[in-house]
Design a protein that fits this description.
heterodimer, A: 212 residues, alpha/beta, Methyltransferase, Methionine Synthase (B12-binding Domains), Chain A, domain 1, Rossmann fold, five-stranded parallel β-sheet, globular, B: TIM Barrel, two-stranded antiparallel sheet, 10 strands
């Protein structure tokens, strides 16, 4: 259907006004929200990710695309929930204890939301107990840890250790990222995954949920 | 060219040596992780001066100030917004004391950590925060202002316009760390776009700092230099940090870093120093590599 292709384009182009209008029309026409999501909206975000990987897109394009996706998602959400569809997964995300930087964390949160995840944003300077609470009380499937400073990276390790001590390490996947973070560091502290950019974080989160 | 830059850049071999990292030095002097480094200008001025002095003694002809995160938007995260003017003024005064007649003080202005395009902050907010910071730095006696580690053209231009109101010469420097070739800022800005737009917006020098090691900045320096008649300012990291036995270390040695100094001179750098992970030893090594 031609209009749905336009929805795909609107998300890829970051045109939030159009994506919202088209999603609204599609719902009024009684189209299947799950089909809309799986066949047009998520593929659109995948295309955005591909363009980012190939340097056609940079962070600004990524952000406006995520915003267009979010607008369309909000429109179809009630119908989606009514069909019994669950979010792809719940992610508790935060910048670790001692670190007050939130740009990277916000970017990843926006992209994950665009990828169909439910986001529990715990903010900055987040103590391990708050992540534990999000897993125990809110059912987070993934804990996503961000750090910008080399000096606060050790808080990632502490957080993972505390998840272990709380006896919930095996209930949750842990992914990490941030300027000084590397795959090697992720392996060393026992994280389940690492991404060096916000688009890759979505691919990683899907993989951790067993979806990709 | 601004008269200060003219006198700094003529009658001496280029590039003029600037300084290295401050945050890691302050941490080795006892600044706790997660604490606001800029607040130390008021609470531990002696230790901040110790860092400034170490760079002057290493041969820095220009030192910066401990005010990188001292705009009110960043300080607000530590509940210190009300002290923004005092922190900046003290920061400039401390560096001036350490510099004496031996070095010039280029006062540091860093990003707010908020994104303009996401509507987290308005252009007016940015402008007001940077103007407050710039005026306080000027009042503290700064010789020039360096706006550094920027990734968004909108934010760096807001800072530039604000800093220019002081009448001091201004360096505008962005961080190139993104894209396959690491030649874009986080927001996708190329060296050519940066040099052109910042020169047009009135920067007295344009530059690149942080984000990657010195090897990647030789080409970026040449690209900036090719586009702008303004002097080029370069401050790369001491490579990227690695984790060794749970400790974070920068493996690049001062000598390995300084080995690129002649290439950087060839590429047109007028000012050269180091960013994260670099120390006074890096400045000494640069001076040696440039044979002075």
């Amino acid at each position: 259907m031609e209009d749905l292709q336009k929805l795909y384009d609107a998300i890829v182009d970051g045109d939030a006004k159009t994506s919202k209008a088209l999603a609204t029309q599609a719902m009024e026409a009684g189209l299947d929200p799950k089909k809309l999501l799986d066949e047009y909206m998520i593929p659109a975000m995948n295309e955005v990710g591909r363009r980012f990987e190939t340097n056609e897109y940079f962070v600004p394009e990524l952000l406006i695309a995520a915003r267009a996706m979010k607008q369309a998602l909000e429109v179809i959400k009630p119908a989606l929930v009514a069909t019994g569809a669950e979010p792809v997964g719940k992610v508790a995300i935060g910048t670790v204890k001692g670190d007050l930087h939130d740009i990277g964390k916000n970017l990843v949160a926006a992209m994950l939301e665009g990828g169909g995840f439910e986001i529990i944003d715990l903010g900055v300077d987040v103590a391990p107990e708050k992540f534990i609470h999000a897993v125990k009380e809110k059912g987070a499937d993934i804990v996503a840890l961000s750090a910008l400073l080399t000096t606060t990276m050790p808080s990632m390790k502490t957080t993972i250790e505390q998840l272990e001590q709380a006896g919930i390490r095996n209930q949750v996947k842990v992914m990490i990222g941030g300027a000084p973070v590397t795959q090697k560091y992720a392996d060393e502290i026992g994280a389940d995954g690492y991404s060096d950019n916000a688009s890759g974080a979505v691919t990683l989160a899907r993989k951790l949920m067993g979806l990709a | 060219m601004h008269p200060l830059f003219q006198s700094l850049l003529s009658n001496r071999p280029l590039p003029v040596l600037t300084d290295g990292a401050w945050g890691t030095m302050l941490q080795s002097l006892g600044l706790p992780v997660g604490d606001c480094p800029d607040a130390w200008n008021l609470t531990h001025p002696d230790r901040v001066e110790q860092v400034a002095r170490a760079y002057v003694e290493a041969g820095s002809q220009i030192i910066l100030t401990n005010t990188f995160g001292a705009n009110r938007i960043m300080l607000e995260r530590h509940g210190l917004a009300a002290q923004a003017a005092a922190i900046n003024r003290a920061g400039a005064e401390i560096s001036k004391r350490a510099a004496g007649h031996r070095a010039k003080v280029f006062a540091s202005i860093g990003p707010t950590g908020k994104m303009l395009m996401m509507g987290e902050v308005s252009e007016d907010d940015l402008r007001a925060a940077f103007e407050e910071q710039g005026q306080a730095l000027a009042a503290g006696g700064a010789d020039a202002i360096v706006i550094e580690t920027m990734s968004d053209l909108g934010e760096v231009k807001a800072a530039l316009a604000a800093a220019k109101t002081t009448g001091l010469p201004v360096v505008a420097s962005m961080t190139f760390d993104s894209g396959k070739n690491k030649d874009r800022t986080l927001m996708g800005v190329t060296p050519e776009e940066a040099a052109e737009e910042l020169t047009h917006a009135g920067a007295d020098a344009v530059g690149a700092n942080c984000g990657q090691g010195i090897e990647g900045y030789v080409d970026i320096c040449a690209r900036l230099h090719a586009v702008t008649p303004a002097p080029v300012w370069i401050k790369p990291n001491a490579g990227l940090p690695e984790v060794v036995n749970g400790q974070i270390v920068y493996r690049v040695t001062p000598q390995a870093f300084a080995a690129y100094a002649p290439a950087m001179r060839e590429a047109g750098a007028s000012f050269l120093g180091g960013c994260c992970g670099s120390t006074p030893d890096f400045i000494r090594a640069l001076a040696e590599a440039l044979m002075r």
